[in-house]
Amino acid sequence: KTVFLIHGPNLNLLGKREPTIYGSDTLDDVAARCAALAKPAKLDLKSMQSNHEGQIIDWIHEARDAAAAIIINPGAFTHTSVAIYDALQAYEGLVFEVHISNVHKREAFRHHSYVSARAEGVIAGFGVEGYELALRRVISLLG
Ligand code: DQA
């Protein structure tokens, strides 16, 4: 089975961007740690990142035939994108939403997520470890 790990805008800068909020690990570190978890569970983990809303939507469409679960950090699109929500509604597999920071402790505009209404679970404020926690849950559900 395949799992898509989708990172949204500005997360290509992870490790360099506001390290006091997002930490010093890079996206490559996250991909490597998640791949190490996925391998013994015989899951094929595909990590992807885009700064473009349309690209993220295209990947969610692709997941319809290709992935049993999506773990997504939509970045700022979390708070703005009805289109990503609609794409996830058209997807039938598992969806987990991850935020590195605790969005509820931050600006009010980060408190609402369009994606949460479609997610089986939401993780926020566990740093990049949140990705591994979400993946562990996917492994229990798919295993
Ligand atoms: C984020 C939180 C969002 O509010 C922000 O726009 C991001 C990252 C997080 O992982 O904490 O880009 O999704």
Description of the structure:
- There is one protein chain.
- The chain has 143 residues and is α/β, with parallel strands linked by helices.
- It has one domain (2-142): Dehydroquinase, class II (Rossmann fold).
- It contains five helices and five strands, in the order E-H-H-E-H-E-H-E-E-H.
- The protein has helices spanning 19-22, 27-38, 53-66, 82-89, 129-142, and strands at 2-7, 44-49, 69-73, 94-99, 121-124.
- Strands 2-1-3-4-5 form a five-stranded parallel β-sheet, sandwiched between helices.
- Strand 3 (69-73), helix 4 and strand 4 (94-99) form a beta-alpha-beta unit.
- Helix 2 runs parallel beside helix 5 (129-142) and helix 3 runs parallel beside helix 4 (82-89).
- It starts with a strand and ends with a helix.
- The relative contact order is 0.21.
- The mean pLDDT is 97.
- The site of 1,3,4-trihydroxy-5-OXO-cyclohexanecarboxylic acid (DQA) has 10 residues, from loops.
- 1,3,4-trihydroxy-5-OXO-cyclohexanecarboxylic acid is lined by residues 10, 73, 75-76, 78, 99-101, 103, 110.
